[in-house]
UniProtKB/TrEMBL annotation:
Location of the G-protein coupled receptors family 1 profile domain: 43-292
Protein function: Putative odorant or sperm cell receptor.
Localisation per UniProt entry: Cell membrane
GO MF annotation, one: G protein-coupled receptor activity
Lineage: Eukaryota, Metazoa, Chordata, Craniata, Vertebrata
Pfam hit, one: 7tm_4
Family: Belongs to the G-protein coupled receptor 1 family.
Protein name: Olfactory receptor
Annotated TM spans: 27-50, 62-84, 104-122, 142-160, 202-223, 244-263, 275-294
Lipid bilayer topology: Multi-pass membrane protein
InterPro entries: GPCR_Rhodpsn (IPR000276), GPCR_Rhodpsn_7TM (IPR017452), Olfact_rcpt (IPR000725)
GO biological process, one term: detection of chemical stimulus involved in sensory perception of smell
């Protein structure tokens, strides 16, 4: 009973993360993650800038891509700066409110990104299978509605998952075996039987991850059928190229998120969780802009124009 009373007044959590690592390992990880974070911010920032300012990139694909990069910036900023601080300071504690906020933001942005990726697959399907009606079907109004839907579902779903994660008081300690407040790890510390909350998170993950996945699979199945029905191999190659970048991003995000939220907890452990948490919190947001820009001539051209303009402006100011 005393334990329960204490547990209900937990005011902070300790993120164990890389606490066991040696100082030299932590220094190496700090340098690595700082470089990855800087690269991800620069690349996504550049994509946001050019998709919102370059008139040549006015198609729905780039409208969605700009929003995807914005979500990526939000996602990595929710977890990585805190992890970098914890790699250099001794105190790894975070307040209860900060932990709740971080969990909510990870869910909100993660869910919005999953839904947005499904809409991007639908956009590719309309562009390839219904090119003549593309402008009409994917009008600006429709694109704004689709992006708003992704944000709205992220917002609502985040509230539900937040409630499930923090609905019980905490009495199993306050040490989180990860570098951020990840829901399944937080729930495991709550009083009573955490299985109901974990089942709810699992059920939600099935809906949130598999529903967009179904839309993505259907879109690409139809795209594949359409491509294979065409005679010209050069046309096929170009179409495959535009779809490959999106599929690569989808595979990275979904596999890591599925491992983290759709696995029975008995198979989890800090050694297994951390690599997958790192994959979807930093590697995927960093890879998204690289994958999209390197596989796309229009994006490369826009980046060169943007960088050319900034260097020209600098030269004039000098």
């Amino acid at each position: 009973p005393a334990d329960l009373r204490n547990g209900s007044t937990v005011t902070e959590f300790v993120l164990v993360g890389f606490e066991q690592s040696s100082p030299s390992t932590r220094a190496l990880l700090f340098a690595l993650f700082l470089a990855l974070y800087s690269l991800a911010m620069a690349m996504n920032g550049l994509i946001i800038f050019i998709t919102w300012t370059d008139p040549r990139l006015s198609s729905p694909m780039y409208f969605f891509l700009g929003h995807l990069s914005f979500l990526d910036v939000c996602f990595i900023t929710t977890t990585i700066p805190q992890m970098l601080i914890h790699l250099v300071v001794k105190n790894h504690s975070v307040s209860f409110v900060a932990c709740m906020t971080q969990t909510y933001l990870v869910f909100f942005v993660g869910v919005a990104e999953c839904i947005l990726l499904a809409f991007m697959a639908y956009d590719r399907y309309v562009a390839i299978c219904h090119p003549l009606n593309y402008a009409q079907i994917m009008s600006r109004q429709v694109c704004v509605r689709l992006v708003s839907t992704a944000w709205f579902f992220g917002l609502i779903n985040g509230l539900f998952l937040e409630y499930m994660s923090f609905r019980n008081p905490f009495c199993r300690g306050h040490h989180i075996e990860n570098f951020f407040c990840e829901a399944p790890v937080v729930i495991a510390l709550s009083c009573g039987d955490p299985r109901f909350s974990l089942k709810m998170v699992f059920a939600d993950a099935i809906v949130v991850l598999l529903s967009p996945m179904v839309l993505i699979v259907i879109s690409y199945a139809r795209i594949l059928t359409s491509i294979l029905g065409r005679a010209s191999s050069s046309g096929r190659g170009k179409t495959f190229s535009t779809c490959a970048s999106h599929l690569t991003v989808v595979t990275c995000l979904y596999t890591s998120a599925m491992f983290s939220y759709m696995n029975p907890r008995s198979t989890h452990g800090p050694d297994k969780d951390k690599p997958f948490s790192l994959l979807y919190t930093i590697i995927t947001p960093m890879c998204n802009p690289i994958i999209y820009s390197f596989r796309n001539k229009e994006m490369k051209g826009a980046m060169v124009r943007a960088l050319g303009r900034s260097s020209l402006a600098q030269a004039r100011s000098v």
